[in-house]
Amino acid sequence: MKVLIVEDSIFVQKMMSKLIGDYIPNCDIRTATNGEDGFQLYQEFKPDIITTDLLMPGLNGQDMLRMIREQDQDVKIIILSADIQKATREEVEELGISGFLNKPLTAEKASTLLQMIQVAHHA
């Protein structure tokens, strides 16, 4: 399985990479720090699952998600964001996401994230 983590915090990138890598052996994980890099890596890497923040410098998560959906309706996308506005959540849900978790990533939310990835991978 190939996972792309799009997150502007290097700390969160490393934490999520370790979490996913420990949970899913032989998982190929790539990271990007903003939407531009995330979109470019998506095109090159063709991940099975993308986790992304919404609030990032430059191209934000919603705009990256829109660009990906113009090319690919099937890739599984999980949002992990501190932006908890109802309108934002509804907007990304309309774009077809597999899940939405609010930051910060607690132990309980990490467990939920891993379950979401497992479900999305087998969907």
UniProtKB/TrEMBL annotation:
GO terms for biological process: phosphorelay signal transduction system. Residues 2-118 form the Response regulatory domain. The keyword Phosphoprotein applies. The modification 4-aspartylphosphate is found at D53. InterPro entries: Bact_response_regulator, CheY-like_superfamily, Sig_transdc_resp-reg_receiver. Keywords: Phosphoprotein. Coiled coil: none annotated. This is Response regulator.
